[in-house]
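thought: user wants a sequence for this fold. calling inverse folding tool.
action: design(structure=
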């Protein structure tokens, strides 16, 4: 992945983007579980897999694939939707917004907050 990222022409840390995407996917699945009002054991039954697989999938010890994410969301009654967003690399930079103008939750990060992922869309 680092090969093509270097050609973009800016300082991008591919590992940060990868880990952010994984964290967003895991949080999207957890949000779907919560909205479907099911347990992780129910999700495992619906996915026809072991409860331990669901635990690994949501803990980060499993490299979550798009197929697995789609299956998990479908087991909760949802589907995956993707969208692109510009990469913003301004961590550690203090920005003040004009009075009355709030900054978006994800200002200063490459990943929007879970509350911004309406309809369980995943920003990649």
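)
observation: tool returned 124 residues.
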């Amino acid at each position: 992945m680092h090969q093509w990222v270097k050609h973009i022409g800016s300082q991008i840390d591919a590992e940060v983007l990868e880990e952010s995407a994984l964290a967003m996917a895991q949080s999207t699945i957890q949000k779907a579980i919560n909205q479907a009002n099911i347990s992780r054991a129910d999700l495992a039954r619906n996915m026809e897999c072991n409860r331990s697989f669901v635990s690994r999938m949501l803990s980060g010890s499993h490299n979550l694939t798009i197929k697995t994410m789609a299956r998990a969301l479908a087991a909760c009654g949802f589907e995956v939707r993707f969208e692109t967003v510009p990469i913003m690399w301004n961590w550690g930079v203090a920005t003040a917004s004009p009075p009355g103008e709030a900054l978006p939750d994800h200002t200063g990060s490459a990943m929007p907050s879970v509350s911004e992922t309406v309809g369980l869309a995943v920003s990649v």
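thought: summarizing for user.
answer: Here is the designed sequence. The chain has one domain: 12-123.
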